[in-house]
Prior knowledge:
The chain is of the alpha+beta class.
Amino acid sequence: MRVGAHILALTFAAAPLAADEAPSGLSVDLHEVLYEVQPYSEELWAIIRLLAPGLAEAENDPQDDLDWACGHYAAEAVDNAPEPPTQIVVQIMDRVVPRGVPDPEAVQVFASYTFENDSCIWESF
């Protein structure tokens, strides 16, 4: 029996890329893309982790930014996956937080998607 997810690959961007601007105007940087095999189901998930230092001060609903991030980064994440992921999780955080480690000081937002026909389809967590 497995207790936690297994991380298969850390990132497809080894060096920081220039910041992108999300629809809200928030500046976001791709921090990493992780591939995790989920316990019990054995499904592969792609976790797209973005750093947005201004997230804590943002006043807009983050859903548009999450949807944009999936559309912007998911195709490459899927192409680089060892097998087609069943789920894409987009995480935007105001500071780097190790995956799975709680940080009450951090502001983080998450959304889950499936990826079909080169499109992100929002899924309820």
